[in-house]
């Protein structure tokens, strides 16, 4: 029934009622009401009766019907007031059912797991009020697409144990222009109570660390509350998760290219000194504080991949089974075992193309070698400080090496 028709019916019923009162007061005779007046009055009474039969339960479905770019984590929800939910169905556009959970008091419902991106979902809900009268609600929405969403790939992994130098490093798969909003959605805390600050190296990378190395045996928690955060125009975050990792023992290794010795320390005490061969005078090793970011029992090293080529464009070296390799920079600096060099070079001459070499054997199966020992006693996140090479300090974003910025410089790169 339209509003205008209802108003006409109510006005007619009002006029009729007024006429009855006047006639009764003056003459007590017939009301004289017309058939049309009687019809309008009947319709008004029918509407009033229908309203009395309507359920008081009020269902709300989010997101709103017709929504786009909906969250895959928090969007879908059904709630009811003045009643309880009796049935909720959620399906994809092709009819695939989505499992959900009804609250104990039957006043709310939500999907059991994360939704898919670029998917249209349909929701239908039924509720009853205290008198058993039913109410119904329906809605359809589409979740955010990969083209309109971003994620942050982070390191270290959840549940891992890492060295004291391991920063939280987040690489976004889309350029972030609203850095402030995204950084507000990232929280890093430590059980040690150390202050943690984040630094943007670019529009796609943000690292977070304390002023000094993490305290050993502490626990670090990374919370990503990026769901629905607009990182760039029309591009929204989809992550909502908590990650924790443990800081292990405090191991820092000092490589001295001048003395050609490497001192491995724990809690400031030297536990072993190992002879090394660093970068040659023509190919000096970077100086600075570097963090072990990857470990390989054996790996291939081809000079062509890092710019060391001969006149024919081939790599100056191509070793397919380098033992006990640990990455220090993205550009290709490693601490690794060396089985092809004479044993006499270690501790006496720098011969490498920029890596730090330790005596080792082919096959990486001899646990008695210095290369094997250092590999087995190192973990991701351990710090290797390289000194006296004569080369420049490694760039802070070349690997996980933000420790080469002082605290003021680091905090200056925050968006908050």
Main beta sheet, described? 5 strands, mixed
The count of DSSP E runs of length 2 or more, i.e. the number of strands, is 27
Amino-to-carboxy terminus distance:
56 Å
- Structural category is alpha+beta
Strand order of the largest sheet: 21-20-19-27-22
* Strand-residue proportion: 35-45%
Helix count? 5
Mean pLDDT: 88
- Principal-axis shape equals elongated
Question: In summary, what is this structure?
Answer:
The chain has five helices and 27 strands.
How does this structure look, described?
- The chain is an alpha+beta fold.
- Helix content is 15%, strand content 36%.
- The chain contains five helices and 27 strands.
- It has helices at 3-26, 35-53, 179-184, 370-376, 407-412; strands at 58-62, 77-81, 84-92, 100-102, 108-111, 120-128, 134-142, 149-150, 152-155, 161-162, 168-172, 186-190, 196-200, 205-210, 219-225, 230-232, 235-237, 240-247, 251-256, 261-266, 269-275, 288-291, 294-302, 318-327, 334-338, 356-359, 383-387.
- The protein has a five-stranded mixed β-sheet, with no helix packed on it. It has a four-stranded antiparallel β-sheet with strand order 1-2-5-4, with no helix packed on it. The chain has a four-stranded antiparallel β-sheet with strand order 9-11-14-13.
- A hairpin with a 2-residue loop joins strand 16 (230-232) and strand 17 (235-237).
- Helix 1 (3-26) crosses helix 2.
- The radius of gyration is 36 Å and the shape is elongated.
- The relative contact order is 0.11.
- Mean pLDDT is 88; it is low at 1-33.
